[in-house]
Predict the 3D structure of the following.
Amino acid sequence: MLVITCPNCGDRPELEFRCGGEAHIARPQTPAELDDGQWGAFLFTRTNPKGVHAERWIHQHGCGRWFNALRDTVSDRLIATYPMGTPRPDAGAGAAPSSPASPTSQP
Amino acid sequence: MSQTYRLPQGGRIDRSQPLTVRFNGKALQGYRGDTLASILLANGQHLVGRSFKYHRPRGILSHGSDEPSALLSVNWRAERGPGFTDPNNRASVVEAREGLETRSQNHWPSLEFDLGAVNDLLSPIFVAGFYYKTFMWPRKFWDSVYEPVIRAAAGLGKAPEVPDGDRYSNRHAHCDVLVVGAGPAGLAAALAASKDGAARVILADEGREPGGALLHDLGSTIDGKPASDWVAEAVATLDARENVVVLPRTTAFGYYNHNHVVMVERVADHRVDAAAGLPRERLWQVRAGRVILATGSHERPLVFANNDRPGIMLAESVRVFVNRYAVAPGRRIVFATSGASAYTAALDARRAGIDVTLVDLRLEEDCGPELGELRAVGVEVLTGHTVVDATGRKRVTGLVVAPIGRDGRVGARRTLPCDAVGMSGGWTPAVHLFSQSRGKLRFDVELDAFVPGQSVQAETSAGACRGLYDLAAVVADGFRAGGAEQPVEASASRTGFQPARVLPTDADPAKVRAFIDFQNDVTAKDIKLAVREGFESIEHVKRYTTTGMATDQGKTSNMNALGLVAGLLDKEIPAVGTTTFRPPYTPVTFGALIGPSRDALFEPVRKTALHQWAESQGAAFENVALWKRAWYFPKAGEDMHRAVSRECKAVRETVGIFDASTLGKIEVVGPDAAEFMNRIYTNAWTKLEPGRCRYGLMLREDGYVMDDGVVARLAHDRFHVTTTTGGAARVLQHMEDYLQTEWPELDVFLTSITEQWAVIALQGPKAREVIAPFVSDIDLDPAAFPHMAVRTGYICGVPTRLFRVSFTGELGYEINVPADYAESVWKTLWERGQTLGMVPYGTETMHVLRAEKGYIIVGQETDGTVSPDDLGLGGLVSKVKPDFIGKRSLARPDLVGSGRKQLVGLLGKDPAEVLDEGAQIVATPDQPVPMTMIGHVTSSYHSPNCGRSIAMAMLVDGRSRIGETLYVTTPSGFTTATVCEPVFFEPKGERFNA
């Protein structure tokens, strides 16, 4: 069970959260102008990376707010969490699991 | 025969507290401090079970949690009746207690005489992959013959047949340092980590008392003190520290993400005086800042013919039984080893007065000083010898050994008579938890073992679990892991071994039954066969032969299997790899995992404000999501069919009253509320006047129907949205998701009001007559308050949001009142209603009435792949709105055009026969199987108001098939049904305007 740092509430166990899939996929402003291929890509295509993944989480049983998180899909390390609408932070040194994760010392 | 094999003195047992346990009905004496294994051995009982596949006699192999063979069924509380028995308990770890009733497993008719042992004679055909090769044809035998027979023949203990009578608890804990294992390394680590008093430390150990291997170490000293004194001082120090929690009898079995370690504590099994309410076990979910693994190591058996005979055990286990439990596993013990540690066991056994011989696979010159030490006390030691066989069947009677020449040839056999054997093929660090933490293992050639390499979590391994076997090094490593470098003086340990794979033999290898995995009955021959048949990956060999796949997870067998495969493939062990270690480290009861979440506490129960009233009227209830909903209200002597028929007729003839409180309700409020609604729903909301309602349809972004419900506009900036009962939480999440992440610029607030407003539905021609006397501040005149309107005012003096809506096709109201007042309003309406012929009705009648009108239920007619047009609801989709959730998807090629399933009605050939919901529809049964299925029945009822059965279905191109006769599956074959419009009662739809 992960420890996730809610930007509003702090460190909480994964039980309180729900994951909403890949982040930074903005809904198109004018879907009608997209062809079927483009619309299908928006709906269904995801990057599914091995490594750092930006994803949406909601603190469902807490503040009820959505936020974004960078998670390493290999080590399950939470590298950073950041508010909706802010750009993806630089994963930087956090990308490689060179230092062991400490759940009490996450940003 | 009472404790014939108990040594006259010594051991960590309390001879002032004798006790009796039963084994297959026979009373066995022992003492407090014993395990079941030590009591069995003290009483000379080596035969304790039959093996998994071949039903071979099996004894006790080890003294700890790695035990593969001595599995017993234990009735923990016979005096409390059934429900306290569980199977497959390892005799080596169960603490003996007065009153335990234990039974051996997997034999018939008895342990001593087991007919299943015929399998052992048939073993030449039960080779690796036997099942895959043998039970292939005919296919129809798979389920009906082969599986039941195989399942009945194989296996260990019997699963309990009654619910577990014990209770279990569950707790969470946080600490700075969690130390797993309280042997020398773990104690040192806990001492160091807790020294400054600041760090919160938890020390968990699976044994009954801390100390680990030091509890049976009579010769060693640490810092000049006997090892047991050092342990006692360490434990006393830790107990005195307020920042330390010591948990004996607690096994850490799972190491999960972010230092989440799950442990099970055995609370009651060892207690004679356990109060009835005391939990049997407690699950600990620990979140640790840092984890120190001090989990020790496991000894490897030697692989030779008949190495599974009862009486043959691990060398260190012999030492444990002698030193810790004061039990002699035999009078004449032969030790067979490829390393030094067994010499310590032999010396301790000799010191206890047991006749000892030792056979060493190593050549004379490869042995260390231990050789001279053992010979010095007069023990015969045969170096450069292999073991080729064991004699005896239900108890070993001799070990057959032979010298190995310098050329590797096996010389003349010699039988060493004995009644017990202690074998040692070296040591394997217990890296299970490290591996579960996703740490990378590294193969150490010197140690012939995998040891912890790269850590992934905040974790450190210390002591034997990382390949340190010398006591001083182990203790110093524990201090280091705990954060203190300090020198340690300790007596030297006898360490080092030569890897032994399958022992050399002069016998025909094709006939040798040398066991590698004792619990799953896998021999070296099976593994050789698997490799010969082309299996090269250890993961494949494991699954094909089942080696390492039993409940012991191959603690004693994995390295022997791996070494054998590597040797056969002529590869280095790292090139073959190792199998994955998965939780649980040792078997865990379902009770501990479930904790209190069973029976009434399995899941929350939601009851409406009107539940008690329904109960008092004798309603039957059904589960809808977590809610209990009144299903129907049977009168005396009525079955469900009759009650529903009566309720259905009464609603259409007079009036019915229905508890609709479980409907999901969300208030959408704010200056941008209408714009938000426009984007979420397919319908257009801008022009909906305050005071009016509209049936709304909600799609997912992929264009499929997600939910529906009536929406009332209470004010320009306020909508009262209703959802399906099961969809309430999902819809609110869906709305919040878009509001927060896509349209944060919209000024809207969403509030769940499901629990705040109870809903009383009155449906039927007399509905207005019932409520009229109680309503104030609302004009009920149909002209002023038409169908699909909403008014706020009072009913019985209580504030109400009064909806004029209908899910039955009749004149109807849904009276929203604050939940606290619901029962009093209901009772008032009920009192008056009875004079007008009113009946209460439940969800079943609600379903029938809406089906008579062809109204859909999301989740019944829809399955997540149904579009609005499929349901004939294309008219609810706005053509003018530029965008809403799902709009673009409705133009996807697969959502337009022909070939999609559409909602239709079905009238079966026999008006009395109700079609099965879920039944498949075909055009004709005159076609080969598998037939082309063109639809399925979604709703099906007997309709009292139509006087016949009715059904709704999703049918390919259904709207162009009206009037056709099709075939519908029944349990016995097919029946026919005619396709019709999905409206069965009053197609004009005017009654709700009354």
